[in-house]
Amino acid sequence: MSAPLGAVGLAPPVVCAPLAVEQVALRGLAASARVVRTGFGPVRSAAAARWIGSAGPRPVLVAGVAGALTEGVRPGDLVVASEIHFTDFRAPVPIPTAAALAGALRRSGLTVHLGPIVSSPTVVDGARRTELGREGHLAVDMESGWLAEAAAGGPFAVVRAIVDTPDTPLVTPGTVTRGFTALRALRRAAPVLGDWFAAVRPREVVLAEPRSFCAGVERAIDIVDRALDRYGAPVYVRRQIVHNAHVVRRLTERGAVFVEELDEVPAGAHAVLAAHGVSPAVRAQAEERELAVIDATCPLVAKVHAEVKRHVGRGETVLLIGHADHEEVEGTVGEAPADVVVVEDEAMARTLTVPDPDRVAYAMQTTLAVDEAERIADVLRARFPAIGRPRRDDICYATTNRQRAVRAVAADVDLVIVVGSENSSNSRRLAEVAGRSGVPAHLVDDVGEIDLGWLPGAARVGVSAGASAPPELVDEVVAFLSALGPAAVTTRTTGTEDVVFTLPKEVL
């Protein structure tokens, strides 16, 4: 359970509802916080903020109705403010808890928009409304910016339900119906808003080090960026350059075009091969289509390919420990499909057969969980005493280092959050390794996927990130956790990395 707020240096929580009808709609929050009618407009809001904030830092949630500024935000939708701007050009108010709150509200079935809102001292309509929408603001109200002071530096959030839109202004037929729709959305949001209050507490955030990008990922992303700089858009990339949705989105915005297969690439175009490696058949296809190929294969993956070719050249069957549906494994198997057997688990290792038990070798997918892969290898070594093995560990240094670091953190926290995309093997393995330490561990693509229900009892939260996850996503998670109450952020270091891989000549 969450610690009593009085014991954590925070005054009791408050919900600021500017209007009486909003206060009534939010009465379901009475068990979580005091719901206070703060009054309409900036003058009453500023006065209420001074009174509420006089008790010192406290959790404050501003909730009520607002007007939409952009198309696509409809009556009854919720807007969660990522920051508050002012029409009088005061400094904006950032809200680090917004993304996780928006994600929780979406998962409850509500239609939610996340982004900046603007607080205005007067009603906004006409051309000014259009202008504010074009500047990227989602909604406008007359209170949130002034009520932000009520938190006095404590946890803060803003949730607004839309009543009017640019094509259905406030004073038009249907306003009453739209108002009821908005208030109904606020009532439905109340349980999730209660979860936000329950997540407030002091905590220690322990960062695992190393975490986030490895040298192979940095190299692959840099290759695409440099190719776009040198050759201009579009540059085509076969599959995801690395397994992270945020990286792919950013590169797409720059002009990279991601394709499943090279037959989607115009003849003669520039094509980047992703970090996970490809089979010789893919390289042959690129040559046939006269593509200008830029190879971003991680050098450590290329090493495994070379090992497989060497063993097969000696007449050995290669037992490849890995996941058959992973792109890296698909590419490695493609070096010699008739002579490579994928071994996915210990059960398979115990039952597989090979043409000649004395002519066998094994290799590994580079992003496996070290402990799990070694158990499979132990079975193979016991069954085939003459088995050949890698000259050096196939599991890459970054995977090993991140697993060691997250294991050290997991031993001393209440919860582990791993940042990484679901299709990232090394990120999924990090969450699994942490979970095997006996602590709840969750993989999230970004802060918006954090479940508020994980946090009430978590006084110490460990945070790591897969080798393909951008470090700024970790920063956002830390900012969110720190915004939920007094937080001490420490780093648990189990090693350092100074590996750098050279770039291909095509982008130098």
From TrEMBL:
Pfam annotation, one family: PNP_UDP_1
Residues bound to isopentenyl diphosphate: H243, H276, H326, S424, S425, N426, S468
Reactions mediated catalytically: isopentenyl diphosphate + 2 oxidized [2Fe-2S]-[ferredoxin] + H2O = (2E)-4-hydroxy-3-methylbut-2-enyl diphosphate + 2 reduced [2Fe-2S]-[ferredoxin] + 2 H(+); dimethylallyl diphosphate + 2 oxidized [2Fe-2S]-[ferredoxin] + H2O = (2E)-4-hydroxy-3-methylbut-2-enyl diphosphate + 2 reduced [2Fe-2S]-[ferredoxin] + 2 H(+)
Note on cofactor: Binds 1 [4Fe-4S] cluster per subunit.
Residues at which [4Fe-4S] cluster binds: C214, C298, C396
UniProt-recorded name of the protein: 4-hydroxy-3-methylbut-2-enyl diphosphate reductase
Entry EC number(s): 1.17.7.4
Record-linked InterPro entries: LytB/IspH (IPR003451), Nucleoside_phosphorylase_d (IPR000845), Nucleoside_phosphorylase_sf (IPR035994)
UniProt binding sites for dimethylallyl diphosphate: H243, H276, H326, S424, S425, N426, S468
Positions bound to (2E)-4-hydroxy-3-methylbut-2-enyl diphosphate: H243, H276, H326, T366, S424, S425, N426, S468
Pathway annotation: Isoprenoid biosynthesis; dimethylallyl diphosphate biosynthesis; dimethylallyl diphosphate from (2E)-4-hydroxy-3-methylbutenyl diphosphate: step 1/1; Isoprenoid biosynthesis; isopentenyl diphosphate biosynthesis via DXP pathway; isopentenyl diphosphate from 1-deoxy-D-xylulose 5-phosphate: step 6/6
GO biological process, one term: dimethylallyl diphosphate biosynthetic process
Iron-sulfur found in the keyword field: yes
Gene name of this polypeptide: ispH
Described purpose of this protein according to its UniProt entry: Catalyzes the conversion of 1-hydroxy-2-methyl-2-(E)-butenyl 4-diphosphate (HMBPP) into a mixture of isopentenyl diphosphate (IPP) and dimethylallyl diphosphate (DMAPP). Acts in the terminal step of the DOXP/MEP pathway for isoprenoid precursor biosynthesis.
Domain Nucleoside phosphorylase: from-to ranges: 35-168
Protein family: Belongs to the IspH family.
Named cofactor requirement(s): [4Fe-4S] cluster
Active site residues according to the UniProt entry: E328 (proton donor)
GO molecular function: 4 iron, 4 sulfur cluster binding; 4-hydroxy-3-methylbut-2-enyl diphosphate reductase activity; metal ion binding
Keywords, ordered alphabetically: 4Fe-4S, Iron, Iron-sulfur, Isoprene biosynthesis, Metal-binding, Oxidoreductase
UniProt keyword Iron, yes or no: yes
